[in-house]
Amino acid sequence: MKTPHVKLREILRELAEEKEVQWTEDLERDIPRHWEVHGDLILLPDSALQMPEWSSLLEGGWRPVADALGCKRLAQKSRIQSDDYRSPNVKLLFGKDSWVEHIDNRIRYCYDIRHSMFSAGNISEKIRVGSLICQGETVVDLFAGIGYFVLPYLVHAGAKFVHACEWNPHALKALKRNLELNKMKEKCQIHFGDCRKICPRSVADRVNLGLIPSSECSWPVACAALKPSGGTLHIHGNVETHSSEQNTPQEESTTEICASDELYEEDVSVNCSRSGSRFSNSRLEVSAKTEDEEMEGVDSARIGQNVHWVAWARHIKCEIHRLLEEAHGGEWEVKVIHLEHVKSYAPHVDHMVADVSCRPIVWSG
């Protein structure tokens, strides 16, 4: 039985013979072997079919390629655009409709593939969010997108209500459709615009900050969004990883991260799929003394001696403590209660999530 790649190569070679275009090894190598499947739409990689000869071979249209691959619609992606939305750069080659649908953990997501992206690599975090106990809670999602985390909070975690902040009009359109598809329209209020300007204050039991490489620009608004009685922040971020040679502690700390604040084993749990992996952050180097203090009381086997990972958590703890006092006044107890390793990027970058418990020490409510 012929594979789609073999069928595609044969059809393209026949086209070359018909148009008297010389078949070369370069053309052979330019034929894709891998692609993304989105229902009946196939998304070709940006590296495929780039030789100038394809312009004349396919001047009659892309139907031969679609037929060979067994799809009804065909598109090709390029590099992500450098706009504020990190928009995909996708061109529809064959077919008229660019909307696709994914079913992920029994949740339906639809979106226009030309304007929005779907990260299958985040499935573990979406499942984890869905497993949280959020009955009766109000959640604020500062970077809602098409509903990646909004829907797990509502459908599986049982959140009472979600405030969804989003500034990309294309993602907003998909979010509205997805809320309707999953029958959650009445449980979500959409706030269109920059979350730093339009996010509601003092309403949330839980705030989701699903922005990478860093969500730190929105930590102040996240703290302000929490109820005066406190709640939980889920802070996403990319943390650089290095080899053991690169990960050697420096003699002096290059960033103040509240060295007096310690994280103990009872304060933080860690989930990392790669036992013994090393995590670091070039902005959060700590002295050897601070590393020793930080490891004291922490399950080193569980975190794999990832002292820079712990330093990232300590930086979060320190900054969130300061921002909570600015937003709400009074004294607060801040604990990083869990660190989640979502996935890895190449080279040496890991997507992490810190769950941060925020409680006022004295609250009269």
TrEMBL record:
<dbReference type="Pfam" id="PF25133">
    <property type="entry name" value="TYW2_N_2"/>
</dbReference>
<dbReference type="Pfam" id="PF02475">
    <property type="entry name" value="TRM5-TYW2_MTfase"/>
</dbReference>
<dbReference type="InterPro" id="IPR056743">
    <property type="entry name" value="TRM5-TYW2-like_MTfase"/>
</dbReference>
<dbReference type="GO" id="GO:0030488">
    <property type="term" value="P:tRNA methylation"/>
</dbReference>
<dbReference type="GO" id="GO:0102522">
    <property type="term" value="F:tRNA 4-demethylwyosine alpha-amino-alpha-carboxypropyltransferase activity"/>
</dbReference>
<feature type="domain" description="SAM-dependent methyltransferase TRM5/TYW2-type">
    <location>
        <begin position="35"/>
        <end position="360"/>
    </location>
</feature>
<dbReference type="InterPro" id="IPR030382">
    <property type="entry name" value="MeTrfase_TRM5/TYW2"/>
</dbReference>
<protein>
    <recommendedName>
        <fullName>tRNA(Phe) (4-demethylwyosine(37)-C(7)) aminocarboxypropyltransferase</fullName>
        <ecNumber>2.5.1.114</ecNumber>
    </recommendedName>
</protein>
<dbReference type="GO" id="GO:0008175">
    <property type="term" value="F:tRNA methyltransferase activity"/>
</dbReference>
<dbReference type="GO" id="GO:0005737">
    <property type="term" value="C:cytoplasm"/>
</dbReference>
<dbReference type="InterPro" id="IPR029063">
    <property type="entry name" value="SAM-dependent_MTases_sf"/>
</dbReference>
<keyword id="KW-0949">S-adenosyl-L-methionine</keyword>
<comment type="pathway">
    <text>tRNA modification; wybutosine-tRNA(Phe) biosynthesis.</text>
</comment>
<keyword id="KW-0808">Transferase</keyword>
<keyword id="KW-0819">tRNA processing</keyword>
<dbReference type="InterPro" id="IPR056744">
    <property type="entry name" value="TRM5/TYW2-like_N"/>
</dbReference>
<dbReference type="GO" id="GO:0031591">
    <property type="term" value="P:wybutosine biosynthetic process"/>
</dbReference>
